[in-house]
Fold Dynein heavy chain C-terminal domain-containing protein.
Amino acid sequence: AGVGFLSLKPLTAWYKDLNDRVSFFKVWYNSGHPITFWVSGLFFPQAFFTAVMQNFARANKYAIDRIDFDVHVRDDVKPDGSDIPEHPPAGCYMYGMFLEGCRWDEKVHALAPSLPKQLFVPVPVVLFKPELDWKGRGGVYACPVYKVLSRKGTLSTTGHSTNFVRDMVLASREDPEIWIRAGVAAFLALKY
């Protein structure tokens, strides 16, 4: 149990997930840097986000501790971003996340209350765009992103949580307090 990636899935679903991850990395290896990344398939997504910030910082000769991500949801493309023609100038496109406690409303391009009987909904493709001295913007909710549904983890030897990945700012027409009370969070993997 201690040598596999963090998962709450039963064995057959875990094995399928492992095969999907291996396939994702094979395509990446054989075809080169993908335009969109399946964030759920990354074994250590925290390090991937750090690497994206490092690349941006080095390319622009910035200190990495002055870099953070702005987030732009691309609800105008396919769920896996396969119709995005080229890499972003900076940052990375990600897909494979799920929201709990709300949904993404493509008509208003913002978070909205969940529809009846929808516990988890896919997040559209997201651009994580590194910005220098980013102070945030109004009308957003800092949505926590976790690997699995348990929302708890321990600190690893690298100082990162074994479950918490990072916050992701999502546009909201509602006061962020509403989403906090609803327990809104994003997850990289579900139980099935």
Summary: The two ends are 18 Å apart (CA to CA).
